[in-house]
Amino acid sequence: MHRHNIGWRVIDHLVSDLGARDISKSSFQGELYRHGNLFFLKPTTYMNLSGKSVQIVKNFFKIDPEDIVVIHDDIDLPFGAVRFKQGGGHGGHNGLRSIDEMIGRDYYRIRIGVGKPEHKSQVADYVLHDFSAEETPHLEEITSHVSEAALTLNKRELDDVRTRFSRKGIDLLPPSN
């Protein structure tokens, strides 16, 4: 799974752990799972159109933007860093730009650092490639950590979640020769 799909990986973890059931419909333009009053959406539109799927599900189930948590990759954070916020700009992330346009900016965001390419011109290629051999062993732990944070965000205040779950990143060992 590539960097741009780290949020999907977290959703897969949550769906599996909670035993959420698939309630997908083609009209949702995504895979949708439900566990009690929690919904887990993986838009199947192009990333830069994901707001359409979010808007459809939001409107269908009458969900307030303040009750939406978007889990996404962030190249401005070091690999493995985790940050939380409500509202704000899209930071150049086309998926967030689409969501902002469709439902506004009042939703919560869990930002997962995926590192940054050496040159800005490499961003699109970088996020659409798999994690490196050095990063891959850390993905399960990151996924588990963010899953727990997402469930906690559903029950606690943002500042509490920030204090407990924010991370600076993971130092990767350089490849040994």
Count of spatially separate domains: 1
**Going across the major beta sheet, what is the strand order?**
1-2-3
The CATH architecture would be 3-Layer(aba) Sandwich
SS-derived structural category: alpha+beta
Order of helices and strands: HEEEHEEHEHHH
Shape: globular
CATH class: Alpha Beta
Distance between the termini: 27 Å
Tally of separate helices:
6
Largest sheet: 3 strands, antiparallel
Q: How many β strands by DSSP? A: 6
CATH fold title: Rossmann fold
Low-confidence stretches: none
Binned, the helix content reads 25-40%
Radius of gyration: 16 Å
Strand content: 15-25%
Overall residue-averaged pLDDT value: 91
Mind telling me the CATH superfamily name? Peptidyl-tRNA hydrolase
Walkthrough of the structure:
With 177 residues, this protein is α+β, with helices and mostly antiparallel strands. It has a single domain (3-165), classed as Peptidyl-tRNA hydrolase (Rossmann fold). It has 6 helices and 6 strands. The strands form 2 sheets. Strands 1-2-3 form a 3-stranded antiparallel sheet, sandwiched between helices. The radius of gyration is 16 Å and the shape is globular. The two termini are 27 Å apart. The mean pLDDT is 91.
